Amino acid sequence: PSSQESAPLRLREAVEADLPELVQVLQQAFAEYQDKLDPPSSAQDETVDRLRAVLRSSHAVVAELEGAIVGCVFYAPIGDHVDLFRLAVLPVQRRRGIAQALIRYVEDRTRELGLSRVQLGVRIALTRNRDYYERLGYRFVEARSHAGYSKPTFVILEKRVDCIPPDVAE
């Protein structure tokens, strides 16, 4: 490969040894929301121990470029759907399709698990994030509130993945 070609993106399930690097990715990716969200994002407070606990009931996927983790997403089968959460891409690696590749991985895993829907939560204040998910086919399900808040603070979006979109079918 020539030096002008970009390194291939590698996606894989996270392992215990990835946890310190995942903490760093989450903290860097969510730093832009510091002091901008009410309630504040708990991503800034993430620790290896907390992620280890999350991975007891969930899975994480890492995106690697040249051996370094540049993004991640967590997912968990819950009842009749998969919950996608904590999608994070390092700021310097954004706008390269990494988030979309991670989302597609979770959608593929959802089908492999025999489930038909992926759900995720997006803060109402983060309109660009909601617009991004809606461009990928996610649709509004309901508004919800964090504990202690009387007004909605986030929305649940959902995408059916039980049929392969025409642009992906061969």
Helix content: 25-40%
Major sheet strand order: 1-2-3-4-5-7-6
Tally of DSSP β-strands: 7
Characterize the overall form: globular
Instruction: List low-pLDDT spans.
Output: none
Radius of gyration: 16 Å
Q: H/E series, N to C? A: EHHEEEHEHEE
Q: Supply the helix-strand structural class.
A: alpha+beta
User: What proportion strand?
Assistant: 25-35%
Number of helices: 4
What's the pLDDT, averaged over the residues?
Answer: 89
Largest sheet: 7 strands, mixed
Determine the N-to-C terminus distance: 28 Å
Written account of the structure:
- This protein is of the alpha+beta class.
- It is about 25% helix and about 30% strand.
- It is built from 4 helices and 7 strands.
- It has helices at about 20-30, 50-55, 100-110, 125-135; strands at about 10-15, 60-65, 70-80, 80-90, 115-125, 140-145, 155-160.
- Strands 1-2-3-4-5-7-6 form a 7-stranded mixed sheet.
- The model has no long low-confidence stretch (mean pLDDT about 90).
Which SSEs are present, and which pair or pack?
Elements: E1 9-13, H1 19-30, H2 48-54, E2 59-65, E3 68-78, E4 81-89, H3 98-112, E5 117-123, H4 127-135, E6 139-144, E7 154-160
Parallel strand pairs: 4-5
Antiparallel strand pairs: 1-2, 2-3, 3-4, 5-7, 6-7
